[in-house]
Amino acid sequence: MVEFDINKFKGQKNDRYAKHLASLKKSGKETTSIEKAVSDALKNIEDGKTRSFVIYGEPQSGKTEMMIGLTAKLLDAGNKIVIHLLNDSVDLLNQNLRRFKKSGLSPSPKHFKEIIDPEVKLKDGEFVVFCKKNFSDLQKLISKLGNIKGRVIIDDEADYASPNSKVNKGQKTKINALIETLLENEGVYIGVTATPARLDLNNTFENDHEKWVDFPPHKNYTGQDAFFPIDSNDPGFNYKLTFLSDSEDNPKYIKEALFRFFINVAYLNLKNATVEQNYSILIHTSGKKIDHKSDKSVVEVLLSELADQESKRFENHIKLIYTLVAKIYPGEEEKLTGYIVTNRSKASIVLLNSDRSNDNLEDAANPISLFTIVIGGNIVSRGVTFNNLLSMFFTRDVRQKIQQDTYIQRARMFGSRGDYLKYFELTIPESLYTDWHRCFVFHRLAITAIREGKGAPIWLSDSRIMPTALSSIDRGTVSFDRGEMAFSIFDFDCELAQEYNDIVESPTDSFSKLNEIKKLLGEGALPEYLQQYILNTSFKGTKSIAIHVASSIANYKDDPGTNKDKIERVQGFFGTTQMQKKKFPDATHHFKVFFNAKGRGRLYYKFDGSIQFIKNLKSSIEKKNHD
Questions:
Q1: Are the beta carbons of 480 and 612 closer than 8 angstroms?
Q2: CB distance 81 to 148 below 8 Å
Q3: What's phi and psi for 129, nearest 5 deg?
């Protein structure tokens, strides 16, 4: 027998991150996006200059797998305590805790209640702890941690509950204050979200937007580009889009949407599946529980009528299904209708309301029946991944101003839908789709700017859409510019100015002029994402775009609101005179170079409408000094 030597068993390297990546690859999952986000996050921490930042990624793009990988890498790097904060929902916490445990992560993740026992000594080992963003739970966790240093906080759905909605009152919300206490003793904050606007405009935990980390979607992801293409008039949608009346709220619409869902389930299982698969439809109601119950009643009555073959309603329903099949899959009427009749009893209703504990969450996330009908409101908008979701039905329009962060999170149809995307149906009031589409156009502009390294993100709003609740916007550091946006500064000598003006005054169309200007001034002067947006929102063609000759700001008054070196002005540069409305009566998009006496220029974009450009002016240096 080989002599026992304890030193052989001490200090063994545990490469948890590599094991996690290997496990994902073995199961056929792509890891490139995870590796990029984890690498960038660790770089932020290791350089010692950033203690609070955000990782942002699209809704349902695999952020949980990324957070498992990030946790593993943090542990490998020597961090002893990693704390995961989740929304105040027992079921969401348990769902995430299960996924972390299934990954084989070491040490095994624990609910915070498991470490409260005085016998558990946190200084003696490594811990991965899950805790809800709940006042009582956070207090107990803080008490247990004491003065232990170096904890890392990973805040899932970070824009929910964590920001300080009392920021303009000189006060702090309870959850915000508790998380700030949790970050004491050299803590690191990593907020994870699909909608980072609130975190930026709120200055939540002084996060540094210059150090934000992008978690790009994996190659099989279907998201805003598929469901909300930037050209809303593009007829080439790769899924089924059905518009509802904006004024009428009739139960027949739910019935027809349900029948189309049944038909698509039947088609997929008869034509494509070797093994019969369960699918779900999500009926998204208002946030009121009474509306959930009302819609549930409509569905229950319909299913009971389908169960009785002797009733006249049964005949009418089956005839309608037969007629719909003829429209959707002509020639398949007998097979698909027969399949639905045979399997009509394999339908179940899952009701999700706003209760903190909801036993139905797992049944909704993974369809329990062939035809799974999920009914719910706000709770379905955060943290729930719906596997095999085949249809979404929005029962009501939103009359008040809507928030980008709320509605982007409601895009539960995003995810890995590639295998059956062309059979997916979104049924929605047309005006709500239009607002939702604009939400994503605005969001895409801000996020693309961050990804391209253009500096602080600029969030857009108009008469219908705000990036986040006004109460959460730190008015001490955030500017609200009326439709004016500027880009990178560039050299702009007399020769370049003449070339620019020659392009402006040439007889070519405005679209061509924009391309020539970008070549002349560089990508930084006119980002591709903005150019694409303008090309697809110029409803009067080339007349929608006005490009103006360059103007000097050398003679502008020197005042606190004007910075001639940076070519910035609090009140903006574009006024009625500069827009030349008589010359360009149909223009909504205006471009003009303003330059200073030092041979430097900056291209300004002005939207002639109700759009606001909202930007956090607080620099990362100011935030560090504040800390």
A1: yes
A2: yes
A3: -120, 135
Structure tokens at 153: 């906080």
Residue 232 CA to chain centroid, in angstroms?
19
Read off the pLDDT of residues 421-474 as tens digits, 9 standing for 90 and up.
999 999 998 888 888 888 888 888 788 777 766 566 888 888 888 999 999 999
Give the model confidence (pLDDT) of 571-607 as tens digits.
Answer: 788 888 899 999 999 998 999 999 999 999 999 998 8
Integer-rounded Cα radius of gyration of the chain? 27
- CB-based burial of residue 575 (10 Å sphere; 0-12 exposed, 13-18 middle, 19+ buried)? exposed
> Closest Cα partner for 190 from 326, 74, 283?
74
Partner residues linked to 425 by β-bridges: 240, 391
| CB within 8 Å of 217: residues ≥ 6 apart | 33, 57, 58, 61, 62, 223
Assess contact for 307 and 347: CB atoms under 8 A: no
pTM exceeds 0.90 for this model = no
Which residue bears the tokens 């006005």? Answer: 546
Distance CA 448, CA 456 (A): 11
Residue 164: enclosing H or E segment and its boundaries? none
Q: How many CA atoms lie within 13 A of 292 on its CB side?
A: 19
Query: Residue 386 burial by CB count (10 A; 0-12/13-18/19+): exposed, middle or buried?
Result: buried
284 alpha carbon, distance to own chain's centre:
18
